[in-house]
Every structure is written in C-alpha cells, then in structure tokens.
Amino acid sequence: MEVKFLGVRGSTATPGNEFSKFGGNTSCTEIIHKDFQVILDAGTGFTDISIRKDVPVLVLFSHFHFDHIQGLPFCRDLYSPDTPIYFSSALVSKEELKGILGGCFSPHYFPIELVENLTHIQYLEFNEASKIIKSFCDVKSIDLRHPGGATGYIFENNTGKFCYLLDHEYDDESAPTIINAARDADFILWDGMFTDEELKMRKGWGHSSISQGADFLVSTNAKKLAVCHHSPYRNDKEMMILERDYAKKNLFLAREGQIIKI
Length: 262
Ligand SMILES: [Zn+2]
Ligand SMILES: [Zn+2]
Description:
Elements: E1 2-7, E2 28-33, E3 36-40, E4 57-60, E5 85-88, H1 94-104, H2 114-117, E6 121-124, H3 126-133, E7 138-144, E8 150-157, E9 160-165, H4 175-182, E10 187-191, H5 196-201, H6 210-220, E11 225-228, H7 236-246, E12 251-253, E13 259-261
Parallel strand pairs: 3-4, 4-5, 5-6, 9-10, 10-11, 11-12
Antiparallel strand pairs: 1-2, 1-13, 2-3, 7-8, 8-9
The structure holds zinc ion (2 copies).
Residues 10, 27, 65, 67-68, 167, 229 line the site of one zinc ion (ZN).
C-alpha cells in the first residue's frame, strides 16, 4: 500500500511560485494498491488524478467543505463511462451524498448538473463501500470534531495501517478515542493547519496544530506522521522554517506529489 499526496493545502488553493515546493492544491490523497484505488477527498488535487480502469475505484469524502470537493468536476477520467467508480462518505447516507454533491454542482454554482451527467457513478453507504475493498484492506471510519462534522478513515491490511485524519480540532475530550483508533499506525496524515500561537486565536475553526501532531505521534506510538492541510497563508519559505523547527525523522510536512510506502 502506498499513499500519494495530490493536494496538501487547506481551505483554498494557492497557485504561485512561492507555494510551488509544498504545493498549492487542496485536499486529495490517493491510496495506491494493485487491487484497488481509493481517493480520499476531491479538492483541486483531484483534477490531475489518473483514475484506473483495471480495479474498483472508491472515492471517499471526509466532509464537504469546498476545499475537499472543488476539484471533483475537473478530473477528465471521471467522465469515462466504462470505469466503475463508487462514491461514499461515512459522514452521510448515500442519498444525502448524492444530494449534497448535486446541490454544489448545479447551475447556481456550476454550469452543468454534475450528478445527473455522471450516471455511471455508484453511490454507496459506507458499510457497502468498505466491502468493495474488504478482501485487500479493512477500512473503518472515525468521527472528527469539525464544524459541520467530518470523518477520518483508518485503513489496515497485512502490510500496515494508515490513518487519514484531516480537518479536526484535536482536544482533550476527543483525544482518547482518536489515539485509540490510530494506535501503532504505520502512517498518519494529520491536520496541522495552525501553529500553537495561531490556534489560540482560532478556537472552534475545526483544525489542529503541528505540535499537537508531534504529541499525537508519541501518544499513538505510530511510526510516521505527515502534517498536512497547510495554511493557505504559509508560503514555502515559512513552511521550511516550520519544517526546520518541527520535522524529525518520523514527522514531516507533506508535499504535493510525495509518495509514502506503508
Ligand atoms: Zn479542509
Ligand atoms: Zn473542513
């Protein structure tokens, strides 16, 4: 199992040279496996993804803030009707998922009725979606503290355990459940949008800090953690200062295009 970062930026995309080292696309992560393809969220990083035709393809949404769905209609491969693609989210039922995406990509906000045009997409309840990849990998969901709700996903098979934990406000109340779920993980993708200083001013905004990620890594006894959902106000120069201050051999700041082997 490999994890590829296609979009590591939070909130809004950041084009421009000063963001090019870490990347400016919003949330999209691919799990690469010979028997399936899982795509986590469809931010602007979704635009360039190659959707496979030889295996089941499952797109899982953590929630529906714009930075996690903006890229959805712009991936050309999505329009190929001969590829079976499944959409699901543990946050909502399949009908709600269809309704939310249909509402966001309808003529008030988008030129075409996306859901009506993509008739080959199959919407699944999360328990049905998990069965699609069950023989190769177990996937569980975990509720995360985030305005409007969000879901994390935990993937585990005989090669390792990967925890996708973006968009959450980590605190003492939520810690025991999340630590338990991520215990002994091989790799964790963490919402480190803020520094501790910024976090003081952003209570209730639904995000965590880089140093909370460092603590989480120790508390879970996990092998490796990547800080992700980078602030759109942080350019490469500032990111590299944070990297210098926080990075250790098992904690790093995610960069677009990077692939992590699990
Ligand atoms: Zn987000
Ligand atoms: Zn969000």
